[in-house]
Amino acid sequence: MKIWKARGHRQLWTILDYVLLCGMCALLFYGASWQFFKTYTDAARYQCYALAFWQGQAELQTLPHSQCTFLTHPKPQDLPPITQETLLHSLRQTGAPPWMLQFILNQDPSSPLHTLPYEYPLLTLIPFSVGLLASGGWYQVVFAVVMTLFAAGCCLLLRRWHSRSAFLACALYFVLGGWSTVGGRFDIVSVLLTLLALLFAVRRRWNWAFAWLALATFCKLYPVLLLLPFVLAQQRELHGPWNMRSRWRSAGVFCALSLLILCISFLLSVAGTLAPFSYFGDRPVQVESLNASLLWLVSLFGWGALSHEISFGSLNVVSPLAAGVSLGMSCLLLLGLGYTYWLQWRGSIDLSLASLLTLLIIMITSKVFSPQYLLWVIPFVAYSGGTRRSWLFLWTAIASLTSWIYPFIYLMTRSLISVPSLPLFYPVSSVRNLLLVLFIVMIFWISAPKRIVPEP
Fold first, then answer.
1. Which residue from 120, 104, 128 is spatially nearest to 269, judged by alpha carbons?
2. Domain boundaries, the chain
3. Strand 307-311 vs strand 285-286: parallel, antiparallel, or unpaired?
4. CA distance 334 to 434
5. Peptide bond before 407: cis, by omega within 30 degrees of 0?
6. What is the C-alpha to C-alpha distance for residues 193 and 226, in angstroms, rounded to an integer?
7. Under a CB-based contact definition with an 8 Å cutoff, are residues 336 and 365 in contact?
């Protein structure tokens, strides 16, 4: 009788969890719905990339005129640092062989299969292409549905392979922090793949873990930053000489799969393959980053007047002090990552927490902090923190502030360039960034090796 009663309770909780999951999906779809049928959204840009890749840029004429001008009539700020013309010019100056020049010249960006996204790797074209299954006007609706299902997949993986508390926390953070970005961006695809990599890694199925990590990297480049924590976690479990083949077999899977994808990408477009790797380095400071918050605080005291510009597909801040602040952030990046890896090697933190800290340190010290970046860490936060009160309180605040910034503060004005002039913008983004810094410091403090004082 007790067995049947316990089984009934489990079934009731399972039904409740799926009801909550459906509610999460409905809220995420609704959160992205304000962007549907608009021509200036990120999803509209994805449609341009997918259509240009499969059918050529001539087919872009079937879409609204203003939607794909960054491809059909690009302005200088729309172009990536590396284009076919600049690449050919550089190769001619270095005396590249004629066959190489001709190979690149034959990759006409306006023809099918040769237009790759300026800022993203090759595999992003897979989620971009899903929306093409619907008629042109419904692309963004289908895209939002598919991305919402990916978010549900993340939650279900945590429920099945980790804990119910992680499932509940992940669903909560997705709703609060990914209100408009889960269904309006493609980042959730890489998020799911990195979560799969983590789940396979903690079960010591390292070949699969590194394979998922490679696929995630070529959906969006940031997962490559998790390569070192994964390698360290694997090496700590193995015994024997360092030149033992089994020590490096799984990392070899990552390299082999990455090389295969790179070769395919080079065959399609050499310039398009190289462009994403140079895209980020030339970007200015984005207005939601910690760099921008520091520049804003300094400007309040009359140092370094701020101006704003729209370039590289985002709203950026220009300041004479930007280079110095970025240099300081780079130093903090190296120190933070070095300390994280040291803690991991000592066994003070596990792979999930090391991965979370790595991503957070990269995000908070980077020149760019777009609202969808919060999605990168949500499954790791849920995995490591579950429903612990301190984590729930802090991350509920961080996620809520992120959604307050985008879309709500952004929608307070019709002009994108005037968003930083709104009284709420910089204070809210600065508080959010401060909370992230406090969380990182808190984890470092808790994880620091404790000094044992000998008894007298």
1. 104
2. 2-447
3. unpaired
4. 19
5. yes
6. 12
7. yes
